[in-house]
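As practice, study what follows.
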Amino acid sequence: MSDTIAQKVEAIWRDVLTVPSGQDDATFFELGGNSVSAVRLVSRIEEELAVWIDVGDMFEDPDLAELIRTVIAKADEASAA
């Protein structure tokens, strides 16, 4: 399940931030991320994965790998409840 979540989060990240070739490891801010794109990312994750994360998470840990870890952790919390 976590692989599927990771793939979906990556697809949303690439779509919202329009990640150019060769910038796979770029952070949210390096890709031009701002408060509007953070809200778009969080909204898409909520809509497509039914996982709620805080917009502030994007600013605390602004890279794709950390976002994936956060979403997987939140999904695990939700399924355990």
Summary: The two ends are 17 Å apart (CA to CA). Helices lie at 2-17, 35-49, 55-60, 64-80.
